[in-house]
Amino acid sequence: MSANNNKFWLSRRQLLAGLLVSTASGAFAGAPLRSIRPEPRTSAIKLTAAGPADKIIEAAQLSGKVGFVVADATTGEVLEGHKPLLTLPPASVAKSVTTVYGLAALGSKHRFRTRLVATGPIENGKLSGDLYLVGGGDPTLDTDALGDLARQLKEAGLREITGKTYVHSQALPYQNSIDPGQPEYLGYNPSLSGLNLNYNRVFFEWKRQAEGYAITMDARAIKFRPRVAMASMKVVDRKSPVFSLKTTRNADQWTVAKRALGKKGGRWLPVRRPEFYAAEVFHTISRSYGITLPTFVAAKGAVDGTVLAEWKSDELATILRHMMKFSTNLTAEAIGLSASKKRGGKPSTLKASGRMMSDWLKAETGAKHTKFVDHSGLGDGSRVSASDMAKVLVKQGWNGPLRALMKEVPLRDAKGKPVKDHPIQVRAKTGTLNFVSALAGYVQAPGGRQLVFAIFSADLARRGKIKKADKERPKGARSWNKRSKIMQQKLIERWASTFDR
C-alpha cells in the first residue's frame, strides 16, 4: 500500500455558506482548457458575493504553496484558478496520468502473463531439459497464483527434470526501490522487476517467548502460506535503527531492534530480489504437489520452448481500478514501465520511463508544465500544475474511462464522518506525501453541473528537512495534511454552490 492513500478527512462545516469565496490569477482567469462558452451571469454574481478564495486557503494555515483550477467538464472553460501554473508534486494523483498512459498503450483488455516454459519433452513424469519460470511484469501476481501454476505443472505430468531451473525476470528493468529517499523497510517502497510477487513484500511476524522471539518470514496468501528463507530476520539489542538490511545477490538479511517489537505483531517488509523470492516460493509449493525441482538460478537472454503452464492476470481495467482505490505503488510502476516498453521505448529507470510519459502527455493534451520521475508519485521530484492536470481530466471526458476508474471520495461532516447520499458527488484521486497533499477529479454539483478540478499543496522546504529515519511519521506532517484536506473539501463545496446551474 502507498503512503499516499490516507483517508480523506475533511470537514463539511458551513456547507454552501458564506465561506464560499474565490480568487483567480489575472492572466489565467477564465482561460479555456478546450473552448470558450460564456459563464451565466448568476455564477458571476455568486462569485463576487462570495469573496476571494484566498480566505479558504488562509484559514487552512498551511505553510508552503497552494495551486488549484476548476473548469467545466464539457467545455474545458476555466471557472476559477489560484496559481494555476505553479508546479508541485502530484503524489498519488500521478496514478491518474499513469492510468491514461497505460490504457492508451496497452488497452483495457491487456493481461499480464506468467509462464512455465520447458526446453524438452516430458516422458514418464520426467522433463528432459530445463524449466523456466518467466515473468511478464504482472504487478498483481501472488502466492496463490504460483500455486495454480504448480497445479498446472502437475496436471501436465511433470514430477522431476533432468536439467536446470531458471527464473527469468527481464520483461521489465530491475529497480532496487521506487524511491531511494524513503526508509528501506517501508512496504510501499519495494523493488520491481519483470517477476513480482505479493507486491514484492514478505510478511514478518514475531511472538515473544520465554527466551527470545519466535520469528517467521512468509509469503502468505489466501490458500498458501509458505515460509521464506531468502528473507531472514535477526533480533538484536540496540536502540536504533529499528530495522537494518543487507542485500546479497539473491537474499535479504534483516535485523530489528528488540525494544521495538513488544509481545507480538507483524508487518509487511519489502523484498529487494523479487525474482528469487518468487522462485523460492514456487519451488516450495511445487514440492507440496510432489514435483522435485533444482534450486532456481537467474536466466539470461530470451527463452524459447514449450509453455507448460500459464497464469493470466485480470484485465488491465480491473487492475487499474484496484490501483486507483488502494493506491498501490508497485502496480503503477509496472504498468507505466510496460506502457513505455509497448510504445517502443527501452527505459532502464523509472525516471526515464516517467520522462516518456511526460512527453506523451504533452503531445496528447498540450500539458507543458509536467515532469514525472516515476509513475506512482512516490518520488517527490515529479511536478504537475493544476492547469495541466485539469487539461488531462477534460480530455478524458466525463464519460471517459478515467472517471469510471476513480473511486468515490465522500464529503465529511464536522466530526469527520462520511455523509451518506451527499448532494455533491466526487470521483477523484487523492495523493499524500509528508507535507504534500493533492486531489484531482470530477465533481457533480447538486443541480447537475459537471466540473473537473485539481488542487495541489506542498511545503517542500519543510519536507526537505525531514531525516530519512523519520519519514514514516515526521512531526507535524499528519496535522498539516489534515488541514490541507479540510481546505480541499471547502473548495469543492464552494465550487459546487457557485458554479451550479
Sum this structure up briefly:
28% of the residues lie in helices and 23% in strands.
Write the topology of this structure.
Blueprint (H helix, E strand, L loop, with lengths): L40 H10 L3 H7 L4 E8 L5 E5 L4 E2 L5 H13 L6 E6 L3 E2 L2 E2 L3 E4 L8 H13 L4 E2 L3 E4 L32 E8 L4 E6 L12 E6 L6 E5 L4 E6 L6 E7 L3 H15 L8 E2 L7 E7 L3 H11 L2 H14 L7 H16 L4 E2 L11 E3 H11 L4 H5 L1 E2 L16 E9 L2 E9 L5 E9 L1 H5 L12 H22 L3
Parallel strand pairs: 6-8, 7-9, 9-16, 12-14
Antiparallel strand pairs: 1-2, 1-23, 3-19, 4-7, 4-17, 5-6, 10-11, 10-15, 13-14, 18-19, 20-21, 21-22, 22-23
Helix pairs in contact: 2-12, 3-6, 3-7, 4-5, 7-8
Terminus-to-terminus distance: 39 Å
Q: Briefly note the CATH topology name of the largest domain.
A: Beta-lactamase
Largest sheet: 6 strands, antiparallel
| C-alpha-based Rg, rounded | 25 Å
CATH architecture of the largest domain: 3-Layer(aba) Sandwich
Mean pLDDT: 91
Instruction: Using the alpha-carbon principal axes, give the shape.
Output: globular
Strand order of the largest sheet: 2-1-23-22-21-20
Would you identify the regions where 5 or more consecutive residues have pLDDT less than 50? 1-31, 35-39
- The CATH superfamily of the largest domain bears the name DD-peptidase/beta-lactamase superfamily
State the name of the first-level CATH class of the largest domain: Alpha Beta
Give the count of helical stretches. Answer: 12
Q: Which class of secondary structure composition applies to the elements?
A: alpha+beta
Strand tally, please? 23
Helix proportion range? 25-40%
How much of the sequence is in beta strands? Answer: 15-25%
How many domain modules?
2
